[in-house]
Fold:
Amino acid sequence: MNVMIRILLIDDDTDLVSLLREYLTQDGFSVTTASDGGRGAAEALSGRYAIVVLDVMMPRLNGLDVLRYIRSQSTLPVLMLTARGDDSDRITGLELGADDYVTKPCTPRELVARLRAILRRTTPGAAPGRSTDPLTIGALTMWPEQRRAEWLGDALELTSTEFNLLELLLRHAGRPVSKADLSAYALGRPIARHDRSVDVHVSSVRRKLGSLADGRSRIQSVHRQGYQLLKE
Structure:
């Protein structure tokens, strides 16, 4: 018997919520809704959900504040809903730890595709046949099948997208990985023109890893080739 994946949908647009809830339910998800940011923030940390769909424009507590609150206590996957053309909210959401975003108005099919892409990459042991051996470079160790990482012996708190991105860079340490490959692996979608999602996620991972003794970032930008994780 398959266990239904539980989704929390936080949005005050009643028409959109009704449409998305019906579609997601038909697609096999269990959907709970919250119409204001305050209640949604508390519900998101209840431990009952696999992923959150979060609108930026919310009453009482806006979506960015809700995301900030969630990220202060949890790495629960969060997919943001942003207004079309509002690049500032989109980038801010990614900087605060959103795993990805969908612009409104969106089709239910697009939303489901993005949700499944994130969930495929956040389920421990989701890739059959993957080795259980850890990946290690210097002070960084990752256990991909467990979705766990350590830096300098301490747990490294990464969002699902950050984990995927760092895992791919680690598997290719010392060699550049294209933004297209990083987007496909970490976000589960082709990179779009002018899409800065990969750059924002890389910037977040850089901050969490800190700098080398000479001040350089451990993740280097390689002109026209992408990014590479330096071997120490």
